[in-house]
Amino acid sequence: MEGVVIPEPLTLYTADDVRIDAGHLRGAGELCFVLAHGFTCSWRQPALRRIAGVLNQYGGVLGLDFRGHGKSDGHSTVGDREVLDIEAAVMAARRRGYRRIAVAGFSMGGAVAVRHAALHGGVDAVVSISAPARWYYRGTVSMRRVHWVIERRVGRLAVRLARGTRIAPNGWDPVPEAPYEVVGRIAPVPLLIVHGDADSFFPLEHGQQLYGAARDPRELWIEPAFGHAEMAATPDLVKRIGAWASTAVAATRPESAHQ
User: Fold this and answer.
1) For residue 118, what pLDDT is reported?
2) Which has more pLDDT, 127 or 2?
3) By the number of CB atoms within 10 A of the CB, which of 85, 91, 122, 214 ranks highest?
């Protein structure tokens, strides 16, 4: 979403009646990417707009702000009810005539993409980039800081003031299924897992755990010197992801993932 290309503004509503801010770039053909950002990010940020601009070479792009982020309403549940946000975006893409939907998610958005495809279906390809395989991981300094933000009142206030992200204060009850627990349900929809060997949030074991729990058709790309999520994604990596998704959905029947 860069240069002179201006996205179509969208207002979506989830099954639990949360208003979601989104934007759509029309693409040629039948493929649309639903672009799912990471924690504290937004589809309107320059990094996400650059990614959307590259993916737009391969199809339409529908970017959304998860609940509690950006201009969307509600509070972030950090990967739980966000599956409803993706479902609203997938339905919006279908209403615009796209026959193939690829959900591409970064970090938290990658975990939500996995959980959505496993629990709701209705998509034709899934790309999970820099995603956690399991919850409550505190093995890196970066993730210890994230947990402080989520779990402490002062942390939630700080991220609201600094990033505009509103986090639900009461935590999870019950705890949602972790991505590795449900990723096996995505098959036969094609799944691509992308993880960097320089990720300062989630080490390679997370990508490997997701891949190990998934079923074919699946691929694992271990990217040398790649850091974390959308802020580290290069145009070359995004182009390869776009090309992979185009090939993956072309190899499946249009109705295979959403009968």
Assistant:
1) 98
2) 127
3) 85
- The tens digit of pLDDT for each residue in 73-118 reads 999 999 999 999 999 999 999 999 999 999 999 999 999 999 999 9
Query: How far, CA to CA in Å, does 177 sit from each of 16, 106, 113, 188, 197?
Result: 19, 18, 13, 20, 26
What are the tokens at 172? 């999870």
Could you give the CA distance from residue 98 to residue 75 in angstroms, rounded to a whole number? 29
Print the SS3 string covering the chain: CCCCCCCEEEEEECCCCCEEEEEEECCCCCEEEEEECCCCCCCCCHHHHHHHHHHCCCCEEEEECCCCCCCCCCCECCCCCHHHHHHHHHHHHHHCCCCEEEEEEECHHHHHHHHHHHHCCCCCEEEEECCCCCCCCCCCHHHHHHHHHHHCHHHHHHHHHHHCCCECCCCCCCCCCCHHHHHHHCCCCCEEEEEECCCCCCCHHHHHHHHHHCCCCEEEEEECCCCCHHHHCCHHHHHHHHHHHHHHHHCCCCCCCCC
pLDDT at 13 over 80: yes
Whole-model pTM: value is 0.95
Distance CA(2)–CA(56), nearest Å, equals: 11
CB 13, CB 88: distance < 8 Å: yes
Separation between Cα atoms, residue 113 and residue 214, nearest integer Å: 14
Q: How far apart are CA 183 and CA 117, in angstroms?
A: 8
The pLDDT assigned to 103 comes to 98
CATH topology of domain 8-137+174-250: Rossmann fold (3.40.50)
